Predict the 3D structure of the following.
Amino acid sequence: MRKATINDYEMSVRISVQAFGMDEEDASVMESKTFADHTDMLMIVVNEETVGKLRISREEEGQAWIYGFSILPEYQGKGIGRQVLRQVIKEQSAAGYSVHLEVETKNEHALGLYESVGFKVVHTQDYYSYPC
C-alpha cells in the first residue's frame, strides 16, 4: 500500500465505478471530496499495478475507521483484500487504535472476507432514497 497522490484521482474514480458499480459522475464527485478531506487514502498496489484503495480515518477516541475499501473486480478472490486488511489491522492496533469498518451489508462476499479476518457486526443501517 502507498499513500495516494493527486495523480491517483482518475484511478480512484475507476475503482469506485468498477468495484462499487457507481456512476462515473457520482464517483468523480465523491473522490473529489475524499482527496480534499483529512482521511488517509491508500492505494493498493500489486506487482507495481494499482488494484484497489481504502481510506483510514483516525478518531480522537482511539478508533481507526476503514472506508471505501475496494479491489478491482479482476483482482478479487486472490487474497489481496485479506492481506491488506490484516496489514491495516496490525498497523493500527500497534499504534493504539481499535479498528472499525464501514461496509455495504448486502455484499455477502465482502462480509465473508471481513468476518474471516476477525471483524464482527456491531451495527447495521439501511439507507433509503425517495425518487423524484
Q: What stands out?
A: The domain at 2-116 is CATH 3.40.630.30 (Aminopeptidase).
